[in-house]
Amino acid sequence: MQHAASAIIINNKKILLIKRTQSSPMFPGYWTLPGGRSEGDETSRETVTREVREEMDLDFVPTELFHTSSVEYLGENLKTHRFLGSYSGNITLQEDECDGYAWFAYSEALALPLAFDYRELIELLFEKNFL
Predict the structure, then answer these.
(1) CB neighbours of 96 closer than 8 A, spacing ≥ 6?
(2) What pairs with residue 13 in β-bridges?
(3) What is the pTM of this model?
(4) How far is the CA of 10 from the CAs of 16, 17, 103, 113, 126, in angstroms?
């Protein structure tokens, strides 16, 4: 069964978000966490590691499963896994998927158009004192 996984990357109480391109099939121009759908029989940890590498050219190490939920993507209901973790490297965006990135404090992130259920996730991160 296919699933999705996202990386929660936090530095100095700010969260790293990427902006989806205007050509994205869902939520064009919205802000999101780096991540995506699984390929083959990948585990959710393998998925998030690969997706962060592909989208941002970062080495992401998932250290804790923070949240699990379900989201609809192109008519498909996907189980999603959101991982806290560490990263290394310098950000280089995959331009066909991402229009930009930035680090946002809690209130700044909530002011953005956020894809999927990321508004609720950011509120939960704030409640748990990550942001």
Answers:
(1) 21, 23
(2) none
(3) 0.93
(4) 6, 10, 8, 19, 11
Are the CB atoms for 130 and 123 separated by under 8 Å? no
Mean pLDDT score of the chain: 94
In whole angstroms, give the CA distance from residue 15 to residue 8: 7
What amino acid is encoded at 5 in this protein? A
Q: Which helix (H) or strand (E) holds 7?
A: strand 3-8
Structural domains of the chain ordered from first start? 3-127 (3.90.79.10)
Kind and range of the H or E run holding 129: none
User: CA 51, CA 35: separation in Å to the nearest integer?
Assistant: 5
Per-residue pLDDT band for 25 (boundaries 50, 70, 90) equals confident
Closest by alpha carbon to 125, among 31, 44, 7, 4?
7
